[in-house]
From TrEMBL:
Highest taxon in the source lineage: Eukaryota
Name used for this protein in its record: Cytochrome P450
Organism: Dillenia turbinata
InterPro entries listed in its UniProt record: Cyt_P450, Cyt_P450_E_grp-I, Cyt_P450_sf
A Pfam family annotated for this UniProt entry: p450
One MF annotation (Gene Ontology) recorded for this entry: heme binding
Amino acid sequence: MFPYLSICLFFFFFLWTFFHVLKLGPGKWGSGQLPPGPRPYPIIGNILELGARPHESLANLAKTYGPLMSLKLGSVTTIIVSSSSAAKEVLHKNDRSFAHRTVLDAIRALDHHKRSVIWSDADSKWRNLRKVCNTEIFSVQKLDACQDLRQKKIQELLYYVNHCCHTGQPVQIGRAAFTTTLNLLSNSIFSSDLASHTSESSQEFKDVVWGIMEVAGKPNLADFFPAIRWIDPLGVRRGMAVHFGRLIEIFDGVIKRRIELGDTGGRKSDALDALIQLTKQQGSDFRCIDISHLFAGSDKKMHLPLCESDLHHF
């Protein structure tokens, strides 16, 4: 059974590759409106030219082909922008034209790409979500207002390190830094800590987040050959679904407890309150599961703005 299935899959892949090479044909690469770039090899394209350090390889290729070049990564044509002026043209002046980016197969796990503010289409739902994020999370006023919170979390970290020094306990720097960052982000969004320096409560969350980063950072055959995406050849999407599921369970619990509390009752409202109110608006297609997916990617989206805000105060 299994040898027969393997032969069928190999034959299918061989036929697909053969017709793909015929479709590309000699002389077709570099024609049309594509920017200049190295000629791709059959089937694999320019994947080998990326090497073990892709950022250095791309920088070297840009010296030959310019700040705007095209590569063939497997069967996917990829445009590389490597200068500030070209990036400004793409990301600022023509941002709407380039808004629909290629979605990595790992991000498709649990339909995360349909609910993420980064990956979803720029429709009315996305615009409402972006408006709430800009107002309640990323605005200059909100980031400046979190300055005292950041100082408080740093003081808690210093107190923990000092306590370990006096008691002779070893300090796990990675775990301590993760707990501080996690609590800073969670307080910025829903005004509560998710972890503690003196307990194991952050270990599960840490394992989930690092698992997501590890899976998302792996090269995925399905991203280079979208035609075989449906079989998930390396199991990347399945692995990401497990991590996303665990992370969303954690955030679902936080959201449920906030809904049960009801009105703020004198408590200062935060981003979570604004998002919950968005789900209650008449005609809104925004649901609580969308909030969980938003939080599932918030650690990466918020880290840079918070760091930039801290730098402005030096």
